[in-house]
Write a structure and sequence with these properties.
This protein is mainly α. Helix content is 69%, strand content 2%. It has helices at 2-32, 37-44, 67-92, 99-123, 142-150, 158-182, 189-207, 213-230, 235-242, 253-265, 279-295, 298-322, 335-362, 374-383, 388-398, 404-432; strands at 51-52, 55-56, 59-60, 63-64. The strands form 2 sheets. A two-stranded antiparallel sheet has the order 1-2. Helix 8 runs antiparallel to helix 9 and helix 14 (374-383) runs antiparallel to helix 16 (404-432). The radius of gyration is 24 Å and the shape is globular. The protein starts with a helix and ends in a 7-residue tail after the last helix.
Length: 439
């Protein structure tokens, strides 16, 4: 019952976060095309300062970060830290922890990254205008896709949820590698060397049993600043930080339970009805609290702490500043880039995920998971085309302020491809999944 309750809570959180993300994106599009659009643009370009003397933490190359840069390069680092923590957990104990578990999602994700690129290149060939955006339709948004899947409730087999989560995590790894390899320029190796030394320091401090999350995060901010100045995209610092945060708790669960039993057995008893605790009782309760902190690993604790801030603040803010598609003004709205991105998400992701999964099962590289059928796989493959967050992120890296017309087309392609993929995926799954009778 506890597992089922946890899954229901997780599903509710995904639905609420997805709705908030969608509302933020729609609000951005409405405001960007309203009379208050200049105020919206002024907000995006507002310079930020966090100074001590002449040193401004929120600066890059001597120039102050603007609001949109702070959100995309700063706050999104926290999002990528959370992604890194989830990837590390999946690699250690989750659905990517063994070849048997990881094989099918990995193969599906490879198809889901390759085919969108092929579709994009067929519309925007190498060397043509907009060809640098071919990585935009590669990604699957985990929160958004799971949010749509959660709308179907208990009709969805557990194997489908696991499969979608696992291949979306592999997609994230692919997106992170693309950002690190292709969206970095003029690398300053001095900054990277100092950051590498700090990572090594954190790794060995963690190995010696340190579990203070604040310490890791403070050093993480220093590393983020070094990456910001280095030429390698600053969000990569968050992913690497996740891999040096300890995954092992200081106290074993068995020893923790034994300790708690011993503490409770010696808990001082006072008269019933008293509302004031004695000093001895407070000391015992603090002892229990300290032990409870040590039985949860820093990785798991930080992942749990970040989910709320990322889902309900950072991602909606990111959507609000990046999803402002302008429907009028100079430049063509759809264009080749918009069509390439939308087609890559809708057709490329579906074809890649479905075909590679079908091929892996047919040649007996891996069995079909229980509960999965060819029909419901088609719905999951369509949900793989929900590429909202990382796709918008890569669109900004591809075109940025240098080509606002192509960036606007890319945003329109991401929004239209995501909405169509989510809607069609939901409809297909609603049709093919059996309705479970209530007992």
């Amino acid at each position: 019952m506890t597992i089922l309750r946890t899954m229901r809570n997780f599903s509710s959180m995904n639905i609420a976060a997805s709705i908030l993300l969608f509302v933020a994106a729609i609000a951005a599009a409405i405001i960007a095309n309203s009379p208050v659009a200049p105020v919206y643009q002024e907000f995006l370009l507002h310079e930020l300062h966090l100074q001590i003397g002449n040193f401004n933490l929120l600066s890059h190359g001597g120039e102050n970060l603007r609001m949109i840069e702070f959100i995309n390069d700063g706050l999104m680092t926290i999002f990528f830290l959370l992604v890194g923590l989830e990837i590390k957990r999946e690699l250690l104990v989750g659905e990517l922890s063994s070849f048997r578990k990881a094989a099918l999602p990995f193969i599906a994700a490879c198809g889901g990254m390759l085919f969108p690129v092929i579709v994009y290149m067929s519309i925007c060939p190498p060397g043509s205008e907009g060809s640098q955006g071919l990585a935009i339709p590669m990604a699957t948004d985990i929160a958004f896709s799971l949010g749509v899947l959660s709308l179907l409730g208990s009709r969805v087999p557990l194997s489908l949820k696991i499969f979608l989560t696992a291949f979306a995590v592999v997609d994230d790894i692919g997106g992170i590698l693309v950002i690190a390899l292709f969206y970095s320029s003029h690398v300053s190796y001095g900054y990277i060397l100092i950051a590498a030394l700090l990572y090594v320091l954190l790794y060995f401090i963690g190995k010696r049993g340190a579990t203070n999350k604040i310490f890791f995060l403070v050093i993480g901010v220093v590393i983020w600043y070094l990456f910001l100045q280095s030429g390698i995209h600053s969000t990569i610092s968050g992913v690497i930080l996740a891999f040096v945060i300890p995954a092992k708790p200081r106290l074993d669960v068995g020893k923790y339970i034994e300790h708690i039993r011993h503490t409770i057995a010696g808990f001082p008893v006072v008269e019933s009805g008293s509302i004031v605790l004695t000093n001895e009782q407070i000391a015992k309760l603090k002892e229990v609290e300290s032990a409870s902190d040590r039985v949860i690993s820093p990785l798991q604790s930080l992942e749990d702490n970040l989910h709320g801030a990322v889902n309900y603040l950072i991602l909606p803010l990111f959507a609000f500043v990046n999803a402002g598609v302008v429907f009028s003004g100079g430049g063509e709205l759809v264009g080749s880039v918009g069509m390439a991105v939308a087609a890559g998400l809708l057709f490329g992701k579906f074809a890649g995920i479905y075909f590679f999964t079908w091929l892996a099962i047919k040649v007996k590289l891996t069995p079909m998971p229980p509960g999965m059928t060819w029909k419901n796989l088609s719905g999951i493959a369509l949900l793989g085309g929900i590429g909202f967050t990382v796709s918008l992120f890569i669109a900004n890296l591809s075109f940025g302020a240098n080509d606002p017309v192509l960036l606007n087309q890319a945003k329109f392609g991401v929004l239209s491809g995501t909405i169509l993929s989510g809607l069609l995926g939901y409809i297909v799954l609603r049709i093919v999944l059996p309705v479970r009778k209530q007992k």
